[in-house]
Specification:
With 120 residues, the protein is mainly β. The protein has one domain. Helices cover 12% and strands 48% of the residues. It has helices at 46-50, 54-59, 71-74; strands at residues 10-18, 26-32, 37-42, 64-67, 75-76, 81-92, 96-104, 107-115. The strands form 2 sheets. Strands 1, 3, 5 and 6 form a 4-stranded antiparallel sheet that branches. A 4-stranded antiparallel sheet has the order 4-2-7-8, with no helix packed on it. The longest helix has 6 residues, at 54-59. The protein is globular, with a radius of gyration of 15 Å.
Length: 120
């Protein structure tokens, strides 16, 4: 993906599913590297973002995103999926390991995601 000044970014595409039991949702935050960003959207609105330009996508990225459990509005009715799906991914300026913290009521988890590198 090309961003401002034709700088190229890597987008590691992934799906985030919020369980119906996560009544208060979860917050995902990039811990490192400082330049990594999150770009996620509810599956129901993804078609408008799936065709977005690089600049539009970059402007919509965040260091931290709260994922609501919206199963009544955004669940996959066709497949009877009780999870709320968010489509998108992690953007990085170069191959790296991204450290992400996921926080919810009474829980905290840290994960490392290798993007275009063999392992973290």
């Amino acid at each position: 993906m090309l961003g401002p000044s034709d700088h190229q970014y890597l987008l590691w595409k992934s799906v985030v599913n919020v369980a119906p039991t996560a009544t208060q949702g979860r917050t995902m935050t990039v811990v490192s590297p400082a330049t990594a960003r999150l770009a996620y959207f509810p599956a129901a609105v993804w078609p408008q973002w799936g065709q977005a330009s690089g600049d539009t996508m970059l402007n919509a990225t965040r260091k931290s995103i709260h994922f609501d459990n919206c199963s009544a509005r955004y669940s996959d009715a066709l497949h009877k999926n009780p999870y709320t799906e968010y489509l998108g991914g992690i953007l990085v300026a170069a191959p790296t390991c991204v450290t992400i913290q996921i926080v919810g009521p009474g829980s905290r988890q840290v994960v490392r995601v290798p993007i275009a590198v063999a392992h973290c």
